[in-house]
Amino acid sequence: MGDVxxxxxxxxxxxxxxxxxxxxxxxxxxxxxxxxxxxWNILIVDDDPDVHTTTTFALRGTDxxxxxxxxxxADSAAQARDILASAPDIAVILLDVVMEQEDSGLRLVxxxxxxxxxxxxxxxxxxxxxxxxxxxxxxxxxxxxxxxTKSELTRNKLFTTLTSAIRSYRQIRTINTSRRGLxxxxxxxxxxxxxxxxxxxAAGVITQMAALLGMRSEGLICVQHPPSNPSPxxxxxxxxxxxxxxxxxxxxxxxxxxxxxxxxxxxxxxNAGKHIFTDQHTVLFFSSRAQRNMxxxxxxxxxxxxxxxxxxxxxxxxxxxGLENTLLFSQLHDFAYFDSLTGLPNRxxxxxxxxxxxxxxxxGRYTLALIDLDGFADTNDALxxxxxxxxxxxxxxxxxxxxxxxxxxxxxxxxxxxVLGLIEQLLPxxxxxxxxxxxxxxxxxxxxxxxxGIAHLVDVDGDGSxxxxxxxxxxxRAKLHHxxxxxxxxxxxxxxxxxxxxxxxxxxxxxxxxxxFLVYQxxxxxxxxxxxxxxxxxxxxxxDGRMIEPSRFIPIAEHSGMIIGIGEWVLRMxxxxxxxxxxxxxxxxxxxxxxxxxxxxxxxxxxxxxxxxTDSGVDPHLIELEITESVAMEEIDFLSHTLDAMKAxxxxxxxxxxxxxxxxxxxxxxxxxxxxxxxxxxxxxxATNERAxxxxxxxxxxxxxxxxxxxxxxxxxAAQVQVLKALGCxxxxxxxxSRPVEPPALLEWLKNTATDTAHDA
Length: 761
Ligand code: C2E
Ligand code: CA
Ligand code: CA
Known about the structure:
With 761 residues, the protein is α/β, with parallel strands linked by helices. Residues 1-35 and 227-234 have low confidence and may be disordered. The structure holds ligand C2E and calcium ion (2 copies).
């Protein structure tokens, strides 16, 4: 670029050549990013009007390197500045050195290069004074291309000079564009990788591609789905990003594009697996190993030269890697947020949606309904998993098609679905109506009943997962009553929850501070009137001295798992207490200890039972473990196995709260228990109501038929004792004999009754 051209302004008319002839010789060249007929801007700065006219006349109609010339004129440095300020895209400036002042031209050069920062524009200095040599420093410093005296301004020379200046201008621009392009690619790749989701990624590709080509974002991108693995959200080839006038095509299948030119271009590109460049458009191909190739269509009516093409290749290769990652991410995203069986969003996406709604400031209008299929687990067991899966798919299909598109659906767990929508769209009756028509599964009609928990978002304090918890709470409440019902979440329920978590917290502290203790309630044999056993019952005295009911804290301890530790402690305490009672001289009195399900299921249970027995030295035959009927109902195989293991240690087993659960007689036969305990609820009215005796009567008879002894609890009056005696009950426990008391009082009581024989009725 060091060659300096100086043109003489004195035109030699003989050398005039006509434009057409010269221009046509140059058409082999392609302009890089310049649309075909964009002219080269040439600025002539000269205070001599003749120079303007002769120059333009000489080059009239001439094409250089395939483009016409467009002349801009300034007759002073000041005017030139104005033009430059508004028209930066100037290829060449023909600049007179001496104008208003000796150095006007050189000062203008300084302005162009430093002030306007126009580094690409070529400058040709002209002087009317042959022999005048501008300072070489200036020429070097300001990147002046050429230096010609005006006498050298012949037609031919002018053309040659301009051609070489324009060629050099174009080269500089291409290099700069490439450099900018590479910068853009590096930047674009970084930007794109930061975008999550294939759609964002594709939209980013359009933007970055348009930036690379230096044009407006006008185009679209489609992505293929492998035929083998259609996603539940979309299948086939889908437009996943669109900009400019194509914007409305977003999310449409490729086949639905009405503009054939665009559709064919994309199809050809995907089929051929390569980029397509035409005068009309550019279609880029992005490959992906996952068979989810992507094609980007850009309305780019420009001729793209080799260097830009190479840039685009680099871009595409880079982006394909990014595409691969993004697809992987999308897949992970799908796994993370969608249920693969039904294609519905899962719990996590529901929480996100809820968060959105809760933040949206419209919480007053929305409600969340949980829909639980009644008896699904049984259906699954009875008819097989394939049937169960098909049933779930049918349910989700029905909900999808019947509920408004504004509702958000999700499958939370096996048979629990969630719908989030406007309150008026999700009335309980509306939802129940969805299940009135039978489902047809494997050619068979089935009617499903559902139980629902509904939470209006306005009642929810906190975030999406809190909303879900609230609805679950309502669902649990609904299930408690009857299947097929629904319940609304209320603030009272929330209060209860808060209360429970406070209680849990204090229970932790209570355990640390040893505020739990045991009380003992005697059991009296009807036959002998003597004490036959004692039940150990847990107590908690709060810091303020108040007693907290076991019925309040034991369920919490069970839920939190704390019951394992507590239960083990109870077991040991009661065993040691039993040994002490024996040492105190009361022979043959057994100790009944309550067991919780969680304890029973715990793998270390048998070991800790064994340890409690050994460490305390009790006779295992005098230990009776009470399990509740609901436990006894569950998992009969596991249960009978554990029971047998327990019994092998020598302990007895009683079924507590007998009659409150839904027991089947067959389990009593299979489980080796020793005693049935009639729940207090069946005792209360036996003395006053003839009919109320029937259940205790039945239980006693049943127990005896099975060879079990029967004990009644919650006996408060002599009349109740009389009735139970008449019915043949074996043992009696209740306030009538004694409230549960602490060991010193118990020992006192035992001493008194031993001489006295229990206060018989
Ligand atoms: P449960 O096993 O059915 O215990 C009998 C409950 O009836 C005890 O209530 C007892 O104090 C009460 N009771 C006894 N006689 C009478 C009476 O004549 N009239 C009335 N109104 N009530 C009487 P408590 O001690 O409040 O215990 C409640 C429940 O907490 C127990 O019911 C048991 O399920 C559970 N529980 C107590 N201690 C333990 C324990 O150490 N471990 C486990 N897992 N559960 C325990
Ligand atoms: Ca009990
Ligand atoms: Ca009971």
